Amino acid sequence: MSKKKVIVFIVEGFSDKEALNGILSELYDRKRFVFSIIDGDITTQNSTNANNIRAKIGDSINKSREKDKFSKKDIEMVVHLIDTDGIYIPNQNVINNDTVDVLYNNDNIETKDVNGIISRNNKKKLILNVLTTMTSIHNVPYSIFFMSCNLDHVLYNSQNAIKSEKVNLAHSFSEKYIDNPEDFVIFMSKSEFTVKGTYDYTWNFIKKDLNSLHRHSNFHLFFDKIHD
Q1: How far apart are CA 42 and CA 131, in angstroms?
Q2: What residue ranges in 87-215 does DSSP mark as E strands?
Q3: Contact, 114 vs 185, CB < 8 A?
Q4: Strand positions, DSSP E, 15-130
Q5: Global pTM?
Q6: 138: left (phi over 0), alpha (psi -120 to 50) or beta
Q7: Is 207 exposed, middle or buried (0-12, 13-18, 19+ CB in 10 A)?
Q8: For 85-114, what is each residue's pLDDT tens digit?
């Protein structure tokens, strides 16, 4: 029996793995899915910038190789899931609210640190300019897909889910689709939030107006890539 090819998913948290791993493993049972959990947004970490993001992604893959015991030649592709966090909205749509750290709405971001969020947005935009033009890492195919305004928003229609809710939401989502994973493909490919078009088109779309706050995703393109 041939060894399963590995698909590495780079995600922000454990709940992302909880939501997707079981479904994808059922859907593509001849593949091995490995989740590299960053425990936060790699693009907004203090030590990350546009010049070292490629190395940071490489480090996360190497850590997964050590932890999950697979070699570079086993990797079929690297898939990076990123929250847009409303980063492409105009600065004037980041508004002050002294009672919240960050609150995402359909037309603005409320925060007690307006300058901090604007700075975060600008930094993340620069880094995504690098990541969205990357086609490989360590000579392995690489693609980055967006969940807007975040993964919880797309999968559960919960734009501001708190940390204590995320695992339960993820578990319920996985239970919903794990016995019928083809329905997950339909959900991601034919919902109102699905951004149709090419990889470049979908990324250009999410950068426009207030789209990066609204419920959108281009993850459906993954299903085409895995069959390439």
Answers
A1: 11
A2: 94-96, 103-104, 109-111, 136-137, 140-148
A3: no
A4: 31-37, 75-83, 94-96, 103-104, 109-111
A5: 0.95
A6: left
A7: middle
A8: 999 999 999 999 999 999 999 999 999 999
Q: What is the pLDDT of residue 1?
A: 44
Strand order in the sheet with 94-96: 94-96, 109-111, 103-104
Q: What is the pLDDT of residue 40?
A: 86
Dihedral Cα 165, 8, 214, 13, nearest 10 deg: 20
Report the 10 Å Cβ neighbour count for 86.
Answer: 26
| Cα separations in angstroms, 115 against 13, 94, 97, 228 | 26, 9, 12, 43
Distance of CA 221 to the CA centre of its chain: 13
What Å distances lie between residue 105 and 39, 95, 148, 211, CA to CA? Answer: 24, 11, 12, 11
Residue 183: what residue type? D
Q: Are 33 and 57 in contact (CB under 8 A)?
A: no
Question: Using CA atoms, how far apart are residues 144 and 9, in angstroms rounded to an integer?
Answer: 10
In a 13 Å sphere around the CA of 195, the CA atoms on its Cβ side amount to 25
- Which of 19, 23, 34, 22 lies closest to 186 in space, CA to CA? 23
| pLDDT confidence of residue 2 | 60
User: Which residue ranges of the chain lie beneath pLDDT 70?
Assistant: 1-2, 227-228
Q: CA separation (Å) from 165 to 16, 101, 188?
A: 12, 18, 22
| Number of C-beta neighbours around residue 56 at 10 A | 17
Residue 192 has which token pair? 């109102």
Task: Go through the chain and tell me how many residues it has.
Answer: 228
